[in-house]
Amino acid sequence: MPRSDCPDGRARGTRPPRFRHEFRPGKLISGLAVLATAAAYTADATGAWHIPAYLALPVIFVGLLLAGAASWAAYSLRRRRAARVASTEKYAAPASTSGSQAIR
């Protein structure tokens, strides 16, 4: 177990991560589409609503289409942000001096 100077296990001078996971809007949209379809058919089964049987596939299909578009947009934004950050790092040590890669 690595030794740390801070009580929460981090090394001194490092900041804690801002979030545990990346935000994935595609997964959120697809989950909401499936959840909305399930809720509508649950309401139909209880007698509160009348939903046609053929409506589930188009709703889920449109939800997956929107989820794909949102995932593509989020990916392109993350990629653009990573490229911008990488281009501004002028003073980083070369990979060969970090000890993680062999020099050939």
Helix content: 40-55%
The tally of helices reads 2
Query: What portion of residues belong to β-strands?
Result: under 5%
- Kindly report the average pLDDT value: 79
Q: What oligomeric assembly is this protein in?
A: single chain
Rg calc: 24 Å
The structure class reads: mainly alpha
Termini Cα gap: 32 Å
Q: What pattern of helices and strands is seen along the backbone?
A: HH
Structure, described:
With 104 residues, this protein is an all-alpha fold. It has a domain at 25-86. It is 53% helix and 0% strand. It is built from two helices and no strands. α1 packs antiparallel against α2 (56-88). The longest helix has 33 residues, at 56-88. It is elongated and about 65 Å long. The two termini are 32 Å apart.
What layout of secondary structure does this protein have?
Layout: H1 25-46, H2 56-88
Short description:
This protein is mostly helical and 104 residues long. The chain has helices at residues 25-46, 56-88. It has a domain at 25-86.
Features:
mainly alpha, 53% helix, 0% strand, elongated, 104 residues
